[in-house]
Amino acid sequence: MIWLVGCRGMLGKEFAAAFDKAGIAYTGTGSETDVTDKKAVISFVSGKNFTYIINCSAYTAVDKAESEENRAMLINCDGVFNLAMAAKQTDAVLIHFSTDYVFDGEASEPYKETDATNPVSAYGRTKLAGEKALIDIADRYFIFRISWLYGRFGGNFVSTMIRLMNERDSLGVVDDQKGSPTYTKCLAENIIRLMNSGSNKYGIYHCSDEGVISWYDFAAAIYRMGKEKGIIRKNVELRRITTDQYPTPAKRPAMSAFNKDKIKGLDGFKLNRWEDNLSDYFENYGEK
User: Fold this and answer.
1) Burial level of 8, CB count in 10 A (0-12/13-18/19+)?
2) Model confidence over 200-226: pLDDT tens digits?
3) Residue 38 belongs to what domain range?
4) How large a percentage of the chain has pLDDT more than 90?
5) Marked catalytic residue, from 111, 123, 183, 281
6) Per the structure, how many domains does the chain have?
């Protein structure tokens, strides 16, 4: 049996849909099981025979975290600590998702798992603290650092771009931040294959779609594919802008692409080009 934590978020809904399609039994919980409440978490797993705990719960409001770091820390660190305790108690494997924001973005080439972390935002600090809490407690775990997450459920860059491109005649998109998208559907399918393999290659892994692009590159592809599918109906002028022209409360890494050599050796994992995954998103647009 699998415990899917945070089953109503963007990633959690994708896992739930993938499990339903594959006929995999799971127990999904949302806010009714508060991960920041240690007693509630331990009580929930008591007497249950979970083989995997998949943590899709997280505080992900990057800019808001600058003024709510304590709340973000509760969910992204304390909550992960509690789930790690629960995993240890039930002898379950804990699968957890972290972020490219644990790095400062000053590197000149894609980050390896062994590279030094140095978060420059409150969100990044809380996610790194969660990684450390998990590693200190759990014996069997997978930590997947992911970047630029998008999918068919919930709000994300792709859905926001589609909305704005149907509202505006001109749109400026940051072109001096480089990284890689991560498609929720592909990620969930990879995790299912990993679980089916029974792999014990535990540790931290960098995971994203193949290819390094800027946000502008991503937006341009969204516009092109959206127009081809009739999902974007307006003609929009896309403009390249710099980070300085689009200030945000939280600092973003200028370069957050991952070196994925390690994950390519992980059982069941298959990484697709970001263009292919984006095409799949549009092929299945509107399907929930």
Assistant:
1) middle
2) 999 999 999 999 999 999 999 999 999
3) 2-154+180-211+256-272
4) 96
5) 123
6) 1
